[in-house]
Amino acid sequence: MATVDPLDALARRLRERLIGEASEDGDQRDVSERIRALVDREAGVLDLGARTELVRRIAERSFGLGPLEPLLADPTVDEVIVNGAGPNGSVWVERHGRLEPTTVRFGSDADLRHSIERILAPLGRRVDESEPMVDARLPDGSRINVVLPPLAVDGPALTIRRFRRRALVAAELVARGTLSQALHDLLAAAVRARLTILVSGGTGSGKTTTLNALSGFIGPDERVVTIEDTAELRLQQPHVVRLEARPANVEGRGEVTVRRLVRNALRMRPDRIVVGEVRGGEALDMLAAMSSGHDGSLSTVHAGSPEEALRRVETLALMGGVDLPHAAIRDQLAGAIDLVVHQARGADGARRVVAVAEVVRVAGGPATRELYSVRDGRPRWRVPSGDGEQEPRSPAALLASLSRRPGPS
């Protein structure tokens, strides 16, 4: 069981005293000045360094994000995860793809909920017992998720996914080991050849980062419409229109779903449509768009393999509520997607593209055929179907085969 920092406990008590005194005497002095006066009066026996630290901690609890401030100021932290408060609570961070525990703690559920309220209030969002879950995007683009009791059994759960100031380009993914140079060249050729690409992978595998990097190969003369549940993509082309879904307000009104945005995008004269992640019935509208003249589009989906990615999109399309035969949806899926790029996060935290598969038609509908995979730490390549070759080939041969492949119909 974690021990409570005495200075932290003192900061919490003095903050409560600060609030009480302000409500009693209407003190209009600057908050920072009032904090320093309170610390000098109530904790004068402490040395100057301890008092300065105490002032900082009280200020964090008064108008900052409390103990999370140092973590969010650390550029190496990609995600902050808070699991409850008090002695049994914990705060973790993700650095370089790996989770690490921290010594940071919230003294009580009330302190944690106060920080959550300070985050959500400027966004016009709220979370309480009647609506105990919320997703939101911070002004800097970071994503926040909150779950309160009784859904979160051990206390409020807060997750903040940091937003990178600058999106990684494909060359940087090569330097980081996510892509090999040969795979970089292959995917660049695929995007330029207007093949429709689906990036699959698990949570935190880096799908959005790879999708953003692949978008860098889209020509500057093309009009691109991006559609996301929470805006994260940062395309560098000069003609990009970004659309973001909107949740319902506190009265349950005003919701705009990703599916509605996909339908609307078709009326915006896009050359390509980029759907940040397909999660529901919008899969059907996305397939319709991709197979009706918007080739070269990009999207991501949660899945454990290229084969599972196709099955998941098929299942999501069936959730579209349109009375289409299953065979018709499968046929549309086979004609809409050309390549599946699968990414995974290894035990060492590194994110790597571990498989690339082309989508082919078989008697029962769509299937995947492996073009690239990593086995026993070694890459294996195979030329696309229709070239009369079945043995593994070099990346150069695969790239030449792909460049001869006719574009999607």
Low-confidence stretches: 23-28, 388-392
How much strand? 15-25%
Tell me the structural class.
Answer: alpha/beta
Radius of gyration: 25 Å
Number of domains: 3
CATH topology heading of the largest domain = Rossmann fold
> Would you state the CATH class of the largest domain?
Alpha Beta
- How much is the average pLDDT? 84
C-alpha geometry: elongated
Q: Would you kindly provide a written description of the structure presented here, covering whatever features stand out?
A:
- There is one protein chain.
- The protein has 409 residues and is an alpha/beta fold.
- It has three domains: 1-62, no CATH class; 64-163, Beta-Lactamase; 170-404, 3-Layer(aba) Sandwich (Rossmann fold).
- Helices cover 35% and strands 22% of the residues.
- It has helices at 6-25, 31-42, 48-63, 69-73, 109-120, 170-176, 181-192, 207-215, 258-265, 282-290, 306-318, 326-336, 395-404, and strands at 79-83, 90-95, 98-101, 133-137, 143-147, 157-161, 197-201, 224-228, 240-244, 272-275, 298-302, 339-345, 351-362, 365-375, 378-381.
- The strands form two sheets. The chain has a nine-stranded mixed beta sheet, sandwiched between helices.
- Helix 1 (6-25) packs across helix 3 (48-63).
- The radius of gyration is 25 Å and the shape is elongated.
- The N and C termini lie far apart (62 Å).
